[in-house]
Amino acid sequence: MASEAENANQAPDEESIISDFFVPLARDWPGAYGLADDCATIAVAPGHELVIKTDPIRAGVHFFSDDSPADIAWKALAVNVSDLASKAARPVAYTLAISFPEQPSRSWLGDFTAGLSEAQEHFGCGLIGGDTDHATGPMSLAITVLGEVPIGKMVRRVTPSVGDRIFVSGTLGDAALGLRIRANMVDGKKPEQMTDHESLLVDRYLRPKPYLELRSALRAYATAAMDLSDGLGKDLGRMCRASGTGAAVYEPDIPLSDAFMAVAPESLEERRSLISSGDDYEVLCTVRADNVANFVALAASGGVVVTEIGIVRTEPGVTIIDKAGEAQDWAGRGYDHFS
């Protein structure tokens, strides 16, 4: 008789992967039909419309191949939910297409789906379908997440106005610094050797936690919004180009965590690089000047700290103004898949 350990490491076939591991994740969604059909159905709440996002992740690009399966699952869902959070949408359901470079063990799948279960419970959505396959190359996961908003209430990125104040949620640079610490673990540093600050930063990299609680404040007061995934300068630049505006950001006002300040290098240039590297999965938004106090208060009532960092202006481009009042060029900073 096979031992429990042997069973845990046994490689299941495709039917078993679906029935044993993914079907339980779809149990609470009637339109998933237990993943027994070719398609799923979604009934949108009256007066609402769907918001849809797909953001794949790949081993060696977005996560380390030896990351915990539970952390990989959490990140795969979280990076998609981040976009819904910035659109003031409520997550409803998602699909998952996963490509394995080799047949996964039952143990790996158990940890992965446990992490996915934890993530979907945290974000309030359920699995309704997807696909599994085997292909050469790194593991890849493509999640498509579906959310809903009242009709016409999705907050777009193209609608800021000159004079609007620029806000970000949370703190910036933590995940980029966490990635650097995580990379050092590959070179020999053990998790138990990390300080509390380092552990927090690595967790920010491994498990983003988008602020869905900001939904009410965004719907009420944001003139434009998007998620911060590729770095402050790059993403704000995208918002400005899309709207035909520019922006001035005051560097001393960019929110940084205690953990970041304790661990980051002393070099100002290195800190700027980390702050602008991406992986923050925070909300970047604009608010009319006369609504700033109300926006901050409503965000706080949802448990979210938002920080004013700049202003939308007529002059094109993004200018970062340092504490001496000098303009800094961050145009080349940020993440780009093709550079």
Number of helices: 11
What is the arithmetic mean of pLDDT?
Answer: 92
Kindly provide the radius of gyration, computed on alpha-carbon positions and rounded to a whole number of angstroms: 21 Å
Give the oligomeric state.
single chain
Shape: globular
In the CATH hierarchy, what is the superfamily of the largest domain?
Answer: PurM-like C-terminal domain
User: Helical content, roughly?
Assistant: 25-40%
What is the number of independent domains? 2
Number of strands: 12
Give the CATH level 1 class of the largest domain. Answer: Alpha Beta
Reported for the largest beta sheet, the result is: 7 strands, mixed
Distance, first to last CA? 54 Å
Q: Which range does the strand content fall in?
A: 15-25%
Structural class call reads alpha+beta
Write down the CATH topology of the largest domain.
Answer: Phosphoribosyl-aminoimidazole Synthetase, Chain A, domain 2
> Strands across the major sheet, in which order?
7-9-6-10-8-11-12
Q: Name the helix and strand elements from N-terminus to C-terminus, one letter apiece.
A: HHEEHEHEEEHHHEHEHHEHEEE
